[in-house]
Amino acid sequence: MDKKLTDVAAGRVKADLVIKNAFVADVFNGRFIRGDVAVCGERIAGFGEYSGVEEIDGTDKYVMPSFYDTHLHFESVMIRPSEYLKLAVPRGVTAFNADPHEIANVAGETGIKFMLDEVKDIPADVYFMMPSCVPSAAEDHSGCVLDAADVKRISQKLGLFGLGEVMNFPAVINADPDMFGKLDALEIKDGHAPSLSGNALNAYLSARILTDHECADVDEVLEKVSKGMYVMLREGSQTKNLKSLIGAVNKTNLRRFIFCTDDRNVEDLFELGTIKNNVRLAVECGMSPIDAITIASLNAFEAYGIKYHGAIAPGYSADFLLCSDDAARNIERVYYRGGLVAKDGKPLFDVTGKTADASALKGSVRIKPVTESDFVLPYKKGMPIMRVFPNTVVTECVEAAGKTADGLDLMCCIERHDASGDMGKCYVDGIGLKGGAVAQTVGHDAHNITVLGDNARDMKLAVDSLGADGGLTLVKNGKLIGKLPLEIAGLMTAMPAERALQTRKELLAALDGMDYNKRIEPFMLLSFLTLIVIPDVKLNHKGLFSVSKWKYLYN
Amino acid sequence: MDKKLTDVAAGRVKADLVIKNAFVADVFNGRFIRGDVAVCGERIAGFGEYSGVEEIDGTDKYVMPSFYDTHLHFESVMIRPSEYLKLAVPRGVTAFNADPHEIANVAGETGIKFMLDEVKDIPADVYFMMPSCVPSAAEDHSGCVLDAADVKRISQKLGLFGLGEVMNFPAVINADPDMFGKLDALEIKDGHAPSLSGNALNAYLSARILTDHECADVDEVLEKVSKGMYVMLREGSQTKNLKSLIGAVNKTNLRRFIFCTDDRNVEDLFELGTIKNNVRLAVECGMSPIDAITIASLNAFEAYGIKYHGAIAPGYSADFLLCSDDAARNIERVYYRGGLVAKDGKPLFDVTGKTADASALKGSVRIKPVTESDFVLPYKKGMPIMRVFPNTVVTECVEAAGKTADGLDLMCCIERHDASGDMGKCYVDGIGLKGGAVAQTVGHDAHNITVLGDNARDMKLAVDSLGADGGLTLVKNGKLIGKLPLEIAGLMTAMPAERALQTRKELLAALDGMDYNKRIEPFMLLSFLTLIVIPDVKLNHKGLFSVSKWKYLYN
After folding, report:
1. Of A99, A312, B37, B392, which sits with the fewest C-beta atoms within 10 Å of its C-beta?
2. How many CB contacts within 8 angstroms connect chain A with chain B?
3. Which of these, B473, B469, B503, B499, lies nearest to B487 by C-alpha position?
């Protein structure tokens, strides 16, 4: 008990801070109530009539709980976690479930530990999940293998919050002993179960997996909700599900929905923010602002059993936003544990000089040297190739139709952790990049090198230009015309966010000068074309792999 | 992880039990879905299409989670807890929050321990709360005083679930150190805060008190919900709030409501059951059956943070009902942890010979012998007296209007734990018992002797007839015409429920032959007329006490 809190709540002692005369979100009843919000230390003392040592005029403004991004990978934004939070917190999010799945696939425990160290001085609650699938499938060659014993040891040692998205759903359904060991290690478990339904879904849920962020349509959502899952309405930069799923939400099942971003690129992080973008879209789809805010706050904390967070109520953690509107379009102030941490979109905390030591994560790219002759694949009409589409990471397997490979790109996946020389190749239809190549060390989930182009010379140069640290490279007609270095595990840049944004903009501008299908962003899409847990065909370091048949089509 | 559960869920192995082709409650989406429910061991494997070692035809029947009574005092029913559960479980409840507040006020830790021992072999989840207010006010003389150190010690020693209803709200609001010590002892805390609102309510909730079951109207409910409380829609035998509060429930805030009974008499327990009666009334008030069932199950488990209970979903505890209708009017079967524990209203478990040792709780009535001259109070026109009303335990303080005491009854409260001889007296308007007296050792919360009558001779006889063990007695014109012995702490009978019911019926039949206001049940009402935490005037062993003024009017 905190005597001062009770004294403040009772009105006997002045509050540390009062937001006067605001519209206060009542996420329990789904309404706004006019009143004063009193804060004492790290908690909300109450709302009603109060005076405070510090008073902020809230007239015509809105106080609401700050938001919780229930599933994200910091690595996706390609900047350091501290830099990510410098941007995400002022945009209204003070709680995060971070799954360091990508860096764990490159650098195991060292990588996970780095992520924790990065955020420890940031005013936000970051709940780290233990990556469950390193590698995501036995077929992959990642930088690390974490079995059940590792999962248990690391999660206990580092005090992790739960088990990260369990994407190897066949292992769960088939009662794989190592997977069962992982599931036993942590009580909270996030899911990843695209298209799973019926008895297979029941088997997956017998493991008490809590959430899913991979639903494709309303029927899938309703079934998953009916079986006890919390369904994430995900709105990332690459994967955008909110609009196609929100039709499943009604007043009765609203409590079972939460918001996440999963992935975010740096441009969207700057311009759209993260969960406020989910709120905005939900409201555009016709949801009331207070319902969208409830999903963004109370629901998320309830889902994960985090008590006394996510509402403006006595005794609750004083994590809240002061907005000029009822849907967090304009966030004027962000409070975390009673302290003002951001104002008018700018952080009031400085991450400079507080970042974790990344030296062990540099020079992570280890490959056997490549020659131009490596970037050749004999073409045959009728051979299986990969067809890609805008706005989805799902691919199709089709038969090559042309007499030659004209109009197709060659894609290669080069193992980059142990310099094995392994290299998978296939043709890709749908991007049509001409006179150049793109290469990168970001390639879910093993993060080997992916390179795509229409000629061997440019593809070799793109790969060579990645260097020992890795990154994104762009080559046009024999010349490197753009690069974003990703020195930290080949996944994140050491630059501050602002410079990373500028560098990425220059890279994308250079890309824009090239000839390809402009409805697709090749760097983002390529990073998912190696992910063999998403249908239908993907390319790894061994060859073209059919996810639906779970076998190589050629290697 | 449980491999067999996953195997069953996946359909690879036959379930232990399947309810075939039933309407299955989907409390997450608020609907019924037709399907088979598969059970493996103590858990639900899934619903869909299944075959089982045992199969029950569920065609045209309804499967729903069994219910959770979130607040009750076993003592109120005046039978042993094992006998209570023998009746309550077949009527659809398999989880109970029991607050042994009454027996703790008589016998402290010994009493609490007895209650735990009573239920340990019963197929139900009984979560015991640690009584927070023994005595409920410093003005009372109960059989025991439990301070913060006792609360901490006993709750840890006995592994209690939470802190029982914190009814001494002034102590919380005023930051009383002993109360703060109690509030610190347990994380889960039930509330009891009639009419509390505004900053006083905020101060009460700064202690993170979770629930309230004392709301009087819709506005009070909405404020309490807005401040984070779960509001109990209570429907007991004496206190009935559901109909007056249900107007506050809407689709948005439904998740914040739970059901409880608080008190129950044995007739209602037999005839109406407990939480199924709340469900019935809610449906009569226009709520959909599935919403009422959700309040009775999922909401309650969510409120108390008990995971994987309260729904028919994979991995959930297999506690469920098979009903012939959608609102649990007719419960055919009750399953607890996958086992059939009741059928057609009859328990399949036997409590005979499994009850706890009650010998230490017998002979609990210790009073200084009384004479007829003790049962006299000089009458003066204008003196403050207590006015009582049907269907409420709230009283009014009025001035005596008549020239004589004609038409009024005399009530006395005799301290019965330490034979101190203390005895409070007042006149009562509203019952009008003539030519006799009632006496009892049940009197919230100190459980001193309460006796009411219109003449000293009958009042003395009623008290003497209680004996050393206590109970309820009824005297008419100098003759004991009815008695229910309550040998266990003067609160509960040692009889089986069926005989207790019969004895109570005989007692009430005898009462019916007397002349009094038949809209009031004197035994039940009297048990609350000594409770000085309920407004407006009550009588304790020291005299007539004004709750609103917090002082004796005379003693």
Report:
1. B392
2. 185
3. B469
